[in-house]
Design goal:
The protein is of the alpha/beta class. It folds into three domains: 3-259, 2-enoyl-CoA Hydratase, Chain A, domain 1; 296-471, 3-Layer(aba) Sandwich (Rossmann fold); 479-688, Orthogonal Bundle (N-(1-d-carboxylethyl)-l-norvaline Dehydrogenase, domain 2), CATH 1.10.1040.50. Bound molecules: 1,4-dihydronicotinamide adenine dinucleotide (NAI). Residues 299-305, 322-324, 328, 379-382, 386, 389-390, 407-409, 430-433 line the site of 1,4-dihydronicotinamide adenine dinucleotide (NAI).
């Protein structure tokens, strides 16, 4: 039973009991409503208390009901709140730990509210591209005032109960046992003459409501230009201010129903559920035992090793950092300290915390010092022979059961695992640069990786606040394998008639954080060059435009050499279009004998994005990614794909696979068309009107 009913001391205690956070699913809503009615009829009951069992008052809507008929089945939350508010006997909501979304809206329907200190109070619907749909936009401003309410609703950020103690939201902050305090409060309330106060009857006090709302609108326009929900939140609040509670409520409902249908809300919900789904691996049940991971070893203190180490230091886990030479080790440690000092300068880290973190790190040149580590992550040069050396040594010294991970971005993890006598303990942990900042972690599952190793690193990823996505073994894994096709298209388009700045501008307008050429200049053009050289050897049939090789032959490796696809003034990172590069591109096109043509922005975006989609489809066919949403999570968290479009696979669903396939066939007819063969999965879905994300 999701709700418990008991009478204590003349007070009906209605306890929400739907773990983990008392989500307001259908049975919970029904239970509350029945409790309220039963208490109304019971002559022995003088007052009611609504309280949550376990970890929360209520976290709001039951997310397992999202997109199911149960979400809207009566009694809806609106109906429940109406009944609570209409109760002739006083209702006291007793809030601890969490009152969010529908949970807070329910409490706002009660006549009185008391809270334990430290409870997190929020209306986070905006984060899913929605607005609070059960009176939140109307009641919260009446309880906490216009400004606080608007900030809470538009940001979705939690505020602690003490901060709201002085508002009409709370009648009391209860130290000590919450239920005891609620019972005492309820008995006192029952003594009062009715009717009991309703939040809806309170005025919205503000000396200049209109001015403030206009100010809020301007601020939101600046930060949320791609998302309609924050604007609608303001509209709904304004309606209540201008036309009163009932009209405001009706308008809120209208806005809610409209927002649910927007692609932006779909994208945000897709990302929300995609993140959770990424953590679930079909053949690794959630009760798989995990290995204890408390001590970390990192091999290689370069760009990646240092950033990787910081993740664990930040989480309070001690790290032993190994290098081959003292100076490389010193440099690595100094870089970590410099990064922390930069954070401290910005006020993000106290000097004490900085020292605490640095004290957790132990530099070493001796493999023996890694013997106690529960997890060792290798981040040395990207050469199989170097990886071999490292893994053979790790196999010698690591304790039994230690997890051995590689941060390789292109090498075959199964080969790396085979360098050890314990391939079941080997896994890929592919961090993205800068590793202490980027959210994405590709967890590479080798053919022999043990299930408990996977379960353990997935849990660890949460601890270091990464979005972990499992990838099978293939060249480039999910993210880089797809981006290679995208870059290939970008280079073909240079050859056919576009220039770097035009391509970057078009895809940035689509919403990418950075276009392919600015990205390449940042990462270093030599990295792609090395990969292409390998391709030319290993897959001579895979045709590439050689225009990028020309650039590298000119020594233009990107920002680090002050010149790449763009020119960079010394010490600056802003990309200036380069005459030299333009001329090189013109000359290259000429040599190829193909005339240059004007390429429209629409074609640029279509070719770049659909190249991702088509390769993503192949990745699904091959089982490298288990589900389309995993691919979307990789692109949203690691590659700057616009959040409001939900990732390449959801974007393909939105435009329809029929249209995707048609466009691919069209490009297959054009010059460089051999790069375009629709993936079987694309054709199947196009024929069956299917979607990647079901
Ligand atoms: P890096 O060159 O900055 O650092 C490598 C470090 O490993 C150097 O400090 C070197 O002294 C050390 N090293 C070399 N051999 C060693 C050995 N036998 N034992 C101990 N230390 C040794 O390279 P970076 O960029 O940090 O890359 C490391 C790994 O991470 C590579 O496998 C790379 O493919 C991968 N990676 C790199 C990304 C990037 O954006 N740079 C992104 C994701 C993965």
């Amino acid at each position: 039973m999701a709700v418990d009913y008991a009478v204590r001391d003349g007070v009906a205690v209605i306890t929400l009991d739907n773990p983990p956070v008392n989500g307001l699913g259908h049975s919970t809503r029904l239970g509350i409503l029945e409790g309220v009615e039963r208490a109304g009829h019971d002559a022995n009951v003088r007052a009611l208390v609504l309280i949550g069992a376990g970890k929360a008052f209520s976290g709001g809507a039951d997310i397992t009901e999202f997109n199911t008929p149960k979400a809207t089945q009566e009694p809806t939350l609106m109906t429940v709140i109406k009944a609570v508010e209409a109760s002739a006997k006083p209702v006291v909501a007793a809030i601890h730990a969490v009152a969010m979304g529908g949970g807070l809206e329910l409490a706002l329907g009660a006549h009185y509210r008391i809270a334990a200190p430290g409870a997190q109070i929020a209306l986070p619907e905006v984060k899913l591209g929605l607005l609070p749909g059960a009176g939140g936009t109307q009641r919260l401003p009446r309880a906490v005032g216009l400004e606080t309410a608007l900030n809470m609703i538009v940001s979705g950020t939690p505020v602690s109960s003490e901060k709201l103690a002085q508002t009409a939201l709370f009648d009391e902050i209860a130290e000590g046992d919450l239920l005891d305090a609620a019972l005492a409060f309820a008995n006192r309330a029952a003594e009062r003459e009715g009717p009991h106060p309703k939040v809806r009857d309170r005025p919205i006090a503000h000396p200049n409501a209109e001015g403030f709302i206009q100010f809020a609108r301007n601020s939101v326009a600046a930060v949320a230009k791609h998302f309609p929900a924050p604007h609608k939140c303001i509209d709904a609040i304004e309606k209540g201010v201008q036309e009163g509670f009932e009209r405001g409520l009706a308008f809120e409902r209208e806005c809610f129903l409209a927002l649910v249908q927007t692609p932006e809300s779909r994208a945000l919900r897709h990302a929300f559920f995609g993140e959770r789904a990424a953590g679930k691996i079909a053949d690794v049940p959630s009760n798989t035992p995990v290995r204890k991971i408390e001590r970390i070893g990192v091999v290689g203190a370069g760009t990646m090793g240092g950033g990787i180490a910081m993740n664990f230091l930040n989480a309070g886990l001690p790290v032993v950092l190994l290098e081959t030479k003292q100076d490389a080790l010193d440099r690595g440690i100094a870089t970590i300290r410099r990064n922390y000092e930069a954070q401290a300068k910005k006020g993000k880290l106290t000097p004490e915390k900085l020292e605490e973190r640095m004290a957790l790190i132990r530099p070493t040149l001796a493999y023996a010092d890694l013997a106690q580590a529960d997890l060792i992550i290798e981040a040395v040069f990207e050469e199989l022979s170097v990886k071999e050396q490292v893994f053979r040594q790790l196999d010698e010294i690591a304790k039994p059961g230690a997890i051995l991970a590689s941060n390789t971005s292109t090498l075959d993890l199964n080969k790396i695992a085979a360098f050890t006598k314990r391939p079941g303990d080997v896994v890929g942990l592919h961090f993205f640069s800068p590793a202490n900042v980027m959210k994405l972690l590709e967890v590479v599952r080798g053919a022999k990786t043990d299930k408990d190793v996977l379960a353990s690193v997935m849990q660890l990823a949460k601890k270091i606040r990464k979005t972990a996505v499992v990838s099978g073994v293939c060249d480039g894994f999910i993210g880089n394998r797809m981006i290679e096709q995208y870059i290939r298209q970008a280079l073909f388009m240079l050859e056919e008639g576009a220039l770097p700045a035009q391509i970057d501008r078009a895809i940035e307008k689509f919403g990418f954080a950075m276009g392919p050429f600015r990205m390449s200049d940042l990462a270093g053009n030599d990295i792609g060059w090395a990969i292409r050289k390998r391709r030319y050897r290993e897959q001579p049939e895979l045709r590439y435009s050689r225009v990028a090789d020309r650039l590298c032959e000119m020594g233009r490796f990107g920002q680090k050499t002050g010149a790449g696809w763009y020119d960079y003034e010394p010490g600056r990172r802003d990309a200036q279009p380069s005459k030299i590069v333009d001329e090189m591109i013109f000359a290259y096109s000429k040599e190829q004998g193909a005339g240059r043509r004007r390429i429209g922005d629409e074609e640029i975006v279509e070719r770049l994005v659909l190249s991702l989609v088509n390769e993503g489809a192949k990745i699904l066919e091959e089982g490298i990614a288990a589900k389309a949403s995993d691919i979307d999570m990789v692109y949203l968290t690691g590659y700057g794909f616009p959040l409001w479009r939900g990732g390449p696979m959801l974007y393909a669903d939105t435009i329809g696979l029929y249209n995707v396939e048609r466009a691919i066939r069209k490009y297959a007819q054009q010059p460089n068309g051999e790069a375009w063969r629709p993936a079987a999965r694309v054709s199947e879905l196009a024929a069956s009107a299917g979607r990647f994300n079901v």
